[in-house]
């Protein structure tokens, strides 16, 4: 007696299931953990896994998620020799939740539409000696190759007012997002003011922990603030020491080069000149960054 219609459909579905590269790879990797008959008993889980993953490998953003449960991806696992499946938040959802938490906690984050859309493709290369082009290439390389926790070396982007340092930093952030790497772009002078105000509401430690532990931190316009010993030693120093120890890269933008920044950090409002403390802080910046000069015309006048 030949196969019935439903048997043909079932066998065709089974054949399609075991032709799926992800299913074959998972079964090959976990075959030694499975008991006899567990594959047959786990067919429902395997089917659900296959049908619940729609283009995760090519996902561009959480908003573009096509999975039945947006922001969640299925995961197969073995328990007591049997096949099981569960849903876990995907990297895009985790990054989005972290961003929302940071926005509520840290008001000095950049969230403007201009920076959300920043792209290296829009960065103008308008200098005659190509130093700007070299800077952009270094920024692109960093954004595409950096691996937090493995390589903690960041960038120190410095140059005159209005040459587009912040836009380049935002382009780095958006490239990192496409790689599912979480980052935080904050305006340093406003962040330091915010930290002073946080003493009153008791959120200093919470904000400090969020900033120091983000995979990639971008501190914009460092050196434009009025420096105090507390900000230098107990805020900036603590953040950078943690990041250096944990190999978490930091990107800085500044109007000053590293020597000029050291001079700025040596003076605090109340204590006057403290060159030794400035040198100690610079030991957490110089070895952990590549200094990149950004040239170009002042775009703020256009």
Level of helix content? 40-55%
Order of helices and strands: HHHHEEHHHEHEHHEHEHEEHE
Mean pLDDT: 85
Indicate the radius of gyration in whole angstroms: 25 Å
Largest sheet: 5 strands, parallel
Low-pLDDT parts are none
Largest sheet, spatial ordering of strands: 4-5-6-3-9
Number of separate helices? 13
Shape: elongated
Q: Distance between the terminal alpha carbons, to the nearest Å?
A: 82 Å
Structural class: alpha/beta
Strand percentage: 5-15%
Query: How many β-strand stretches?
Result: 9
In short:
The chain is of the alpha/beta class and 302 residues long.
How would you describe the overall organization of this protein?
By secondary structure, the chain is of the alpha/beta class. It contains 13 helices and nine strands. It has helices at 5-19, 21-30, 38-41, 43-52, 91-105, 113-116, 131-145, 165-178, 188-201, 204-213, 229-246, 258-265, 275-282, and strands at 72-79, 82-89, 154-158, 183-187, 216-220, 250-254, 267-268, 272-273, 289-293. Helix 7 packs parallel to helix 8 (165-178), helix 10 runs parallel beside helix 11 and helix 12 (258-265) packs across helix 13 (275-282). The termini are far apart.
Secondary structure layout:
Blueprint: H1 5-19, H2 21-30, H3 38-41, H4 43-52, E1 72-79, E2 82-89, H5 91-105, H6 113-116, H7 131-145, E3 154-158, H8 165-178, E4 183-187, H9 188-201, H10 204-213, E5 216-220, H11 229-246, E6 250-254, H12 258-265, E7 267-268, E8 272-273, H13 275-282, E9 289-293
Parallel strand pairs: 3-6, 3-9, 4-5, 5-6
Antiparallel strand pairs: 1-2, 7-8
Helix pairs in contact: 7-8, 10-11, 12-13
């Amino acid at each position: 007696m030949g196969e019935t219609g439903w048997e043909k459909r079932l066998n065709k579905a089974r054949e399609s299931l075991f032709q799926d590269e992800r299913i074959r790879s998972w079964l090959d990797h976990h075959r030694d953990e499975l008991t006899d008959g567990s594959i047959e008993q786990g067919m429902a889980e395997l089917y659900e896994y296959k049908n619940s993953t729609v283009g995760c490998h090519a996902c561009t953003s959480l908003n573009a998620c096509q999975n039945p449960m947006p922001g969640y991806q299925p995961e197969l696992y073995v328990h007591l020799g049997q096949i099981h499946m569960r849903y876990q938040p995907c990297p895009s959802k985790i990054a989005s939740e972290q961003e929302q938490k940071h926005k509520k906690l840290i008001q000095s984050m950049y969230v403007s539409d201009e920076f959300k859309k920043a792209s290296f493709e829009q960065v103008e290369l308008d200098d005659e000696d190509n130093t700007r082009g070299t800077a952009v290439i270094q920024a692109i390389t960093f954004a595409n190759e950096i691996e937090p926790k493995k390589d903690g070396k960041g960038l120190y982007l410095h140059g005159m007012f209005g040459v587009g340092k912040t836009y380049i930093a935002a382009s780095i952030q958006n490239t990192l997002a496409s790689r599912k790497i979480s980052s935080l772009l904050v305006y340093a002078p406003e962040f330091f003011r915010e930290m002073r105000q946080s003493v009153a509401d008791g959120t200093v430690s919470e904000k400090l922990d969020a900033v120091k532990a983000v995979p990639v931190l971008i501190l914009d316009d460092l050196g434009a603030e009025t420096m105090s010993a507390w900000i230098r030693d107990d805020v900036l120093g603590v953040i950078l020491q943690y990041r250096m120890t944990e190999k978490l890269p930091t990107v800085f933008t500044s109007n000053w080069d590293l020597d000029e920044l050291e001079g700025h950090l040596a003076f605090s409002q109340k204590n006057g000149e403290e060159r030794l403390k400035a040198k100690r802080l610079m030991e957490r910046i110089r070895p952990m960054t590549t200094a990149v000069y950004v040239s170009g015309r002042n775009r703020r006048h256009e």
